[in-house]
Specification:
By secondary structure, the chain is an alpha/beta fold. The protein folds into 2 domains: 10-91, Winged helix-like DNA-binding domain superfamily/Winged helix DNA-binding domain (Arc Repressor Mutant, subunit A), CATH 1.10.10.10; 101-277, 3-Layer(aba) Sandwich (D-Maltodextrin-Binding Protein, domain 2), CATH 3.40.190.290. It is built from 12 helices and 11 strands. Strands 3, 4, 5, 6, 9, 10 and 11 form a 7-stranded mixed beta sheet that branches. A two-stranded antiparallel sheet has the order 1-2. The longest helix has 31 residues, at 66-96. It comes from Nocardia acididurans. Residues 8-65 form the HTH lysR-type domain. It holds the Pfam family LysR_substrate. Belongs to the LysR transcriptional regulatory family.
Length: 302
Amino acid sequence: MPLPPGTPDLEVLDLLTSVAELGSLGAAARRHGITQPAASMRITALERRLRLRLLDRGPTGSVLTESGRAVVAHAAPILAAAQAFSDGIATLRAADRPRLRIAASKTIADHRMSQWLAALRADRPEVIVTLEVGNSRQVETWVRQSEADLGFVEGPHPPTELASRVLGADDLVVVVGASHRWARRRRPITVAELAGTPLLWRESGSGTRDTVWEILGAEAEPAQPAAELGSAAAILATARTGIAPAVLSRLIAAPDLDAGTLLEIPLADAVLTRKFRAVWRRQSPPADPGELLVRYAERFET
């Protein structure tokens, strides 16, 4: 049904309510981002439309009349309903925005994901992305259990029960602190030597650990770890002390190698590398925007 003739707009009712709340036409004008003369003109126009005097204007300021206070009281439920309407529309818009739940291994999350997500956001800014970070085994579990739509892992083999796509490869390097005895050796180490040396290992479930363990295990049973640490940062800090060697992603070790706080030890008879993969449930292949994110990841890794 059409509105009754003379119905004021909500903005001027909100302005009048602000005068009542703040006790000043000037303060109300500042709240609404307009000048005091502009605010006065709008209230005057409202008075003409309603044919009521709403403000007593004097040299010391403006005060609501009895009619003005009554109009503010009548406006309160209207303005509340308008706010509820606005909040409801905002909720609908948020619910209607596409969402993408992803999970990533720590290396990928720390050293690759920001580039991939920046590319996705530039193309699809409306997408709401949530990211969980864990080791590769945890990421695979989250994807299997539908807690993530798409996962990014590293390791020597594709995970079982999940579909996957290779995005690229990541080099692994053997590193030691400057005080370790290997820092003074002149020849590369062999896989057999590395396997027989207690190393600083990531925790079980890490893609780095699985890759290195498989390569060393093909030569000999790996020695008991010097320590098992739950993050690359902890391994870096421990390796710097020279306690034991570590095998890390070159992405992670690069700042220390550049600074000389870690030294790379060449490997004589093997190349240490692992693959980055996108993984998903076979029955739920990635669609836009997940497929778009995978394509950006492939582009950056090739």
